[in-house]
């Protein structure tokens, strides 16, 4: 066991932050969750606007990069071929960035919007229907995917163009922070990233576990208790621990393949046996609603809620701000992953691919699963909203599926899919956490025991909170954990532009070719004296 490989300051720092959150919560559960909740309200209430600006900014930034000269840079040398075909590239990208939460929200998000619509519209009105079907897609659409793509730019650039085996966020910030990447600032950046990801993963586990528990309850009759939920968390952790133990190629690939087939089955089944025409038309209509209202949706903050005497709906804070924060905490992690699988593509291909395939995938989930539930509600055949209010959202999800023919087949497949989905997100997450808390990643993989360690650490926070009854608190953990990640994102965007523009200026290229090959070594030999400061 090579302990020298571990980056101790980062490793211990991240653990210390985690313990400073977990221990007070165990000792003073009530006061603890109150503090977390007021931190959430404080952040979303006062800084919500920053999250929305960052979201719009990220989309504009990556579109600008895609169509600029920097976008033409190829990730890899002249003869490097694309490592993965577009289909498997898109599938891997999707299953790294998307977890069990999409099953949860695609099924049920519309119900919350129908009951509590945006833009201060009357709840459950005719107008609310369109928004109910569209807002979920928006929250899983281009802005969200832009947040995911942004960190991939500097990481992929350093990995394949500057040929530095960077698996750290601090390294990717080096062009801006220079030698401070090796000092405390670098450590802080990595710790904040780890903390963010632990928060994001917490949100995912806190949502996914009760849903899986409801599925199991429906199938076996075992009551949904804390004990059942704890077992589910342990099983999911074990699955991702084992698969991450067997290596990124074998483990993750097998799980993503399984994932893909189960997903196709569920979506096709609901589409064919559900109200096919309603699903198609409503999805198509939603796309129009989103295109038409894109900027209003991306900027709506309900300013009048700040006026004394006017009651706010809390929609922006509970949804758009929460979502951007949640995508944000996963972003550096997904960026690392997207970067790794994008060898041989140009920056532009990587950007547009992530935006388009990512969004399309989410449209399919929300379009099919969400509109099936909406149909049940509107046609009066099953009152989903009353069911949620009487029982819970996870119970309503399973109850919606129960309306399908062959429900006895669909519900187990859905439950297994949720478990596998949770596992794929977590095994790539534990892989990346271990890579970041290591000085060096030899042979392309972090140390095994180290990876297992993070796999179990990911479970500690949700598990503790569950036993003290704070799983709901954890559902919004992303918000607070995501706050510092906003600044990291700006750093990453800046680093990419700085480094790639510098290299482009050193590189001769013709106007006509679509891909520019940047050969850093050759440039350096040519301009030995003209070194970039901080390098
Ligand atoms: N996002 C996509 O739980 C999951 O599905 C992981 C969640 C950020 C909302 C990612």
What does this protein structure show overall?
The protein has 535 residues and is an all-alpha fold. It has a single domain, classed as Amino acid/polyamine transporter I (Up-down Bundle), CATH 1.20.1740. It has helices spanning 8-27, 29-67, 86-97, 101-115, 126-139, 142-161, 169-172, 174-177, 184-220, 226-245, 248-273, 276-299, 315-341, 347-379, 384-390, 393-401, 407-436, 448-467, 471-474, 477-506, 520-526. Helix 6 (142-161) packs across helix 20 and helix 9 crosses helix 18 (448-467). Bound molecules: 3-carboxy-N,N,N-trimethylpropan-1-aminium. The chain crosses the membrane at residues 7-28, 48-67, 87-108, 143-162, 183-206, 226-248, 260-279, 321-339, 351-374, 406-432, 452-471, 477-497. Keywords: Cell membrane, Membrane, Transmembrane, Transmembrane helix, Transport. Belongs to the BCCT transporter (TC 2.A.15) family. It is a multi-pass membrane protein.
Tally of helical segments:
21
Number of strands: 0
CATH class: Mainly Alpha
Distance linking N and C termini: 32 Å
Percent of residues in beta strands: under 5%
Low-confidence stretches: none
Short description:
The protein has 535 residues and is mainly alpha-helical. It contains 21 helices and no strands.
Features:
535 residues; 0% strand; mainly alpha; 75% helix; Amino acid/polyamine transporter I; 21 helices; Transporter; binds 3-carboxy-N,N,N-trimethylpropan-1-aminium
């Amino acid at each position: 066991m090579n302990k020298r490989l571990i980056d101790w300051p980062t490793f211990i720092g991240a653990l210390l932050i985690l313990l400073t959150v977990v221990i007070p919560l165990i000792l003073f559960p009530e006061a603890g969750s109150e503090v977390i909740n007021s931190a959430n309200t404080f952040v979303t209430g006062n800084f919500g606007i920053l999250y929305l600006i960052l979201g719009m900014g990220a989309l504009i930034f990556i579109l600008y990069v895609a169509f600029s000269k920097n976008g033409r840079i190829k990730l890899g040398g002249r003869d490097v071929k694309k490592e993965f075909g577009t289909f498997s590239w898109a599938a891997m990208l999707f299953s790294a960035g998307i977890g069990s939460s999409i099953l949860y929200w695609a099924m049920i998000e519309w119900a919350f919007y129908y009951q509590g619509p945006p833009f201060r519209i009357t709840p459950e009105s005719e107008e609310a229907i369109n928004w109910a079907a569209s807002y979920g897609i928006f929250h899983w659409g281009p802005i969200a995917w832009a947040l995911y793509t942004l960190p991939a730019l500097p990481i992929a650039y350093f990995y394949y163009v500057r040929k530095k085996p960077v698996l750290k966020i601090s390294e990717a910030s080096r062009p801006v922070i220079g030698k401070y990447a090796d000092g405390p600032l670098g450590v802080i950046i990595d710790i904040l990233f780890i903390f963010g990801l632990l928060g994001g993963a917490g949100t995912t586990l806190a949502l996914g576990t009760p849903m899986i528990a409801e599925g199991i309850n429906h199938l076996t009759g075992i009551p949904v208790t804390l004990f059942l939920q704890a077992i589910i968390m342990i099983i999911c952790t074990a699955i991702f621990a084992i698969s991450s133990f067997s290596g990124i190629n074998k483990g993750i690939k097998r799980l993503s393949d399984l994932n893909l087939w189960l997903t196709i089955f569920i979506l096709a089944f609901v589409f064919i046996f559900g109200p096919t025409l309603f699903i198609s038309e409503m999805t198509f209509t939603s796309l129009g609603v989103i295109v038409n209202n894109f900027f209003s949706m991306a900027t709506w903050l309900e300013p009048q809620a700040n006026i004394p005497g006017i009651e706010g709906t809390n929609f922006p804070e509970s949804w758009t701000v929460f979502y951007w924060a949640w995508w944000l905490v996963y972003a550096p992690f997904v960026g690392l992953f997207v970067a790794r699988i994008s060898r041989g593509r140009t920056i532009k291909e990587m950007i547009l691919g992530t935006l388009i395939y990512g969004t399309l995938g989410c449209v399919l989930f929300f379009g099919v699963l969400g509109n099936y539930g909406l149909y049940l509600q509107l046609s009066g055949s099953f009152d989903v909203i009353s069911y949620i209010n009487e029982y819970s959202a996870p119970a309503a999800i399973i109850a919606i599926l129960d309306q399908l023919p062959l429900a006895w087949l669909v519900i187990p497949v859905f439950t297994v899919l949720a478990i596998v989905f949770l596992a794929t997100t977590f095994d790539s997450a534990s892989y990346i956490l271990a890579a970041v808390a290591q000085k060096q990643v030899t042979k392309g993989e972090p140390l095994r025991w180290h990876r297992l360690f993070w796999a179990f650490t990911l479970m500690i926070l949700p598990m503790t909170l569950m036993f003290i009854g704070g799983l709901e608190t954890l559902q919004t953990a992303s918000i607070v954990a995501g706050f510092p990640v906003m600044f990291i994102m700006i750093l990453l965007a800046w680093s990419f532009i700085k480094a790639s523009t510098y290299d482009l200026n050193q590189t001769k290229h013709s106007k006509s070719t679509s891909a520019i090959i940047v050969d850093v070594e050759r440039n350096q030999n040519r301009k030995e004296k003209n070194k970039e400061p901080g390098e």
